[in-house]
Amino acid sequence: MGNQISFGDYEFQMKRKKSKKELFLEKMEKVVPFEKWCAIIRPFYYENGNGRQPIELESMLRMYLVSNWFNLSDEGTEELVDDSRSVRSFVGRVAPDATTLCKFRLMLEDNKLSQKIFLEQNKTFTEKGILLREGTIVDATIIECPKSKKNKEKSLPEGSASTNKYGPITGIKAHIGVDKKSGLVHSIAITPANVSDVAMASELLYGQEQEVYGDSGYRGIDKREDVCEKLHDGTGEVILLSHSHKRKPYYVLTTNTVFHIAQMKSKVTDDSLEKTKSRIRSKVEHIFLKLKHLFKYRKTRYRKAHKNEHHLFMLFTLANLCKVA
User: Fold this and answer.
1) Quick one: which of 38, 119, 140, 229 has the most CB atoms within 10 Å?
2) How far, in Å, CA of 225 to CA of 253, rounded?
3) Residue 175's beta-bridge partner residues?
4) Cβ neighbours of residue 147 closer than 8 Å, sequence gap 6 or more
5) Cβ distance 32 to 321 under 8 Å?
6) Quick one: which H or E segment has residue 319?
């Protein structure tokens, strides 16, 4: 960042072996577009005045990214910067304290800047030909929330719900649409955990897919009215096939979109076909791997829905960058 290094920092840089954390931060230094992201945040950041000057925006952003990468609280991030020379070197010599980082995070949340950063980054991937948008893989994962009701409202965290899909779990569900070719996330939807996967399928499509992949939770996606309308591009028509009051109406899309949805194990007739589907669908699991194992994000940190949504948009943006690094 252009700061003059001390003799201690120089000695640290000359050591023979680098830690995993140091190697990771060096890789992120090369792929994170700090200038573009700072340009998005700067209109909402503090202006220079006659009083105490605000900390440099890029240092604030770097410290905020560290808190996301290592799943730390504001206080934990401050301690890590103080204890780790490699993290301090990444953030800068003038590191913000926990209170300043908290105010910066609140400013990002209130103005929904993580969503803007996510869209801007995907726009860059599209311009570079990395995000092709020829096919989409849809999937969802449950992120557990605290079950405690020891609060003023005596309620669960906002936007969460209980589900028995994998045993009794209380949490939220992150639905994502992933590009078939690159494996990058291009659409996100956050719902309570009890919302079915297929119900949010139309929110994950951009409308020009040639192919759509999904697990068995998306059976019947090709007969949903909202999905058919989303994929209807004027070259075909949406036909209503059932008018019976005893049966729910379903629709058929007469375009070239092909749906590759996994079958239930009891109904599988061609193992080789299911394996082919699974190999392609596995790209979406790579994103969840980075979210839950690389970033250690297995439980929500906040009680408010918009805070958790903001956090997930930023984490998926960083997961995309890790994938192209």
Assistant:
1) 140
2) 9
3) 140, 189
4) 156, 170
5) yes
6) helix 305-324
* Contact (Cβ atoms closer than 8 angstroms) between residue 194 and residue 223: no
Query: pLDDT for 132-174, tens place per residue?
Result: 888 999 999 999 998 877 777 778 888 899 888 777 889 999 9
Higher pLDDT, 268 or 194: 194
Q: Where are the domains of the chain?
A: 7-111, 133-324
What's the average model confidence in pLDDT over 91-115? 92
- Return the residue matching tokens 């090369």: 30
Angle between helices 305-324 and 20-31 in degrees, nearest 10: 90
Six-digit token pair at 159?
């936007």
134 residue type, one letter: E
- Name residue 309's amino acid: E
Going through the chain in order, the beta strands assigned E by DSSP cover: 135-144, 161-163, 169-179, 185-192, 211-214, 238-240, 251-253, 258-261
The reported pLDDT for the residue numbered 254 is 58
pLDDT tens-digit map of 211-228: 999 999 999 888 888 888
**Residue 160 contacts residue 145 (beta carbons within 8 Å):** yes
Give the confidence band of 109 by pLDDT, cuts at 50, 70, 90.
very high
* Locus of tokens 């910066």: 104
- Count CB neighbours of 297 within 10 A: 20
- Estimate the crossing angle of helix 57-69 against helix 34-41, to 10 degrees: 110
Q: What pTM value is reported for the model?
A: 0.87
Domain 133-324 - what CATH class?
alpha beta
CA dihedral 87, 88, 91, 95 (to 10 degrees): 140
Tell me the β-bridge partners of 20. Answer: none
> Residue 174 is inside which H or E element, if any?
strand 169-179
